[in-house]
From TrEMBL:
The lineage of its organism: Bacteria, Bacillati, Bacillota, Bacilli, Bacillales. Keywords: Exonuclease, Hydrolase, Nuclease. The keyword Membrane does not apply. Residues 7-184 form the Exonuclease domain. The keyword Hydrolase applies. It comes from the Bacteria. Pfam families: RNase_T. This is Sporulation inhibitor KapD. It comes from Metabacillus malikii. CDD domains: ERI-1_3'hExo_like.
Amino acid sequence: MEGQESLLLFIDFEFTMPESKANPKGFYPEIIEVGLVAVQNHKIVDQFSSYVKPNRFPKLSERCKTFLQISQDTIDQGITFKELLHVLANYNEHASVTVITWGNMDMKVLRHNCQMNSEPFPLHGECRDLSMEYKRFFGDRNQTGLWKAVEDYGKKGTGKHHRALDDALTTFNIFKLVEEDKRYLQKPEPSTIGDRIDLTEVLNKFAT
């Protein structure tokens, strides 16, 4: 990827969960899966997917394993959080990077995980919450879930819900649909009087 071109970076994370709503002492969500889709000029130029080993609570709860349909062994073979930050920081080589997520939780958890591990936040540039843009655009009262938003368009999500790369790809697909609708609804440039009537015919009438 060339460093000077603008880049849209679609990101999705999956997180650890406590066994019950009563969080164990000191528990906080940690990133355990990452999906990245890098887009330039409306085309996917890079993808990255990996599981990530949590630091604070390395053993997954049964609830987490069931919900995400993953095993402890799978997570144990993932990259470290520090390696994840290195992957993310590589995208800063681009002159302009915009991070796009569905909801604000991904960036909140990433920032908190960085704080808890005494690491700097790895991403520069603007962060956009596409779910809020979708909500404002359609005038919804509540935020819509990612795959519900896809279904509202009469489409299907990519792959499997709650798999980070599939959700990142689905976010990119929703982004394309919303941007297309925005362009469609933009008012066309006002036409000139010459566009609306045949001036030659009018002038000929006055000439006779």
